[in-house]
Design brief:
The protein is an alpha+beta fold and about 160 residues long. The chain is built from 4 helices and 11 strands; from the N terminus they run H-H-E-E-E-H-E-E-E-E-E-E-H-E-E.
Length: about 160
Amino acid sequence: MHGWSLEWLSLCGSRDWRPAMAELNSGREARRIPVLEGSCHCGSVRWTFNGVPESATACSCTVCRRYGVLWAYGYDGEEVRVSGETRVYSWDDRELGFHFCPTCACVAFWRAIEPDPQGRRRAGVNLRMADPGQVAQIPIRHFDGYETWQAHEDGRRVADMWF
């Protein structure tokens, strides 16, 4: 566990992480931005996420519900950095590529196949690849990617979603 995580966890005694994040970011002194880290089971594929995501998305689309993932979103090369050889699964409209480890088969992240008009690629990292203590207090955003394309929150955190 990283040094910031101990401070983070000590400030997150309550279930709401926002006051703790405000305390970490308050004051005139410059604070180091937390960096979340995740890896596949064998350690060959790794990702980092700069900062703490506002939420973790639990999506019910035909792919995400089968993978059982919790996504945090950013842009490749900005908030999200990935390393290691992967295999890619893409289907239908070929907008997203789901990257998994060729050795242990863990789904580590997804990345947009094509950049947006500004030349940036959207990406999502699988928070289940992170140490549970790093992500436990992040709120869950439930997204119905199967029928309604609507999102809601019910007060649960990542810690409530470990089964």
